[in-house]
Amino acid sequence: MSEQDMRARAERFLGALRHCQVLGMRVHEVRASGLTLLLPYSPHIVGNPETGVIHGGALSALLDTTCGISTVCVLPEFEICPTLDLRIDHMHAAEPGKDVYGFAECYRVTPNVIFTRGYAYQDDPAQPIAHVVGAFMRMGKGAQGDGLLKQQIQGGGQ
């Protein structure tokens, strides 16, 4: 699949998830090596009003979504792949007032599970604020799940 097709699929997936719309997440970059999403800073995702640091739940949502969408982009045909396991190691708090980026790649695809890894950062990917590893279950392209969601993500037969 081309990077343009992967980006279109990632944008459709992101657009189908209401919590991602509420958080304002956007696709930042899609490459064969992985996917980067953007979580814009906003007051409604602040976890500590005294410091302005974003809530860990918003960061978790970003990383789970980034890993999940990376699975959809690595497969030739759409499959529902729910999260089996997700581990996030928080390295330090995000700086208040700054957007957060989440990067994820699929490093192993098996017939039953897709393994992902990635990180969250603000200004410099070499200075991550968190690392993530995840496992996603392959349900197969015949799995029904939410038919409307599947139709939205597949788009024009991709």
TrEMBL record:
Organism superkingdom: Bacteria
GO molecular function list: 1,4-dihydroxy-2-naphthoyl-CoA thioesterase activity
Protein name: PaaI family thioesterase
Organism of origin: Pseudomonas fluvialis
Cellular component GO terms, alphabetical: cytosol
Tagged with keyword Cytoplasm: no
UniProt keyword annotations, A-Z: Hydrolase
All copies of domain Thioesterase, residue ranges: 52-127
InterPro entries: HotDog_dom_sf (IPR029069), PAAI_dom (IPR003736), Thioestr_dom (IPR006683)
Classification via Gene3D superfamilies: Hotdog Thioesterase
Source lineage: Bacteria, Pseudomonadati, Pseudomonadota, Gammaproteobacteria, Pseudomonadales
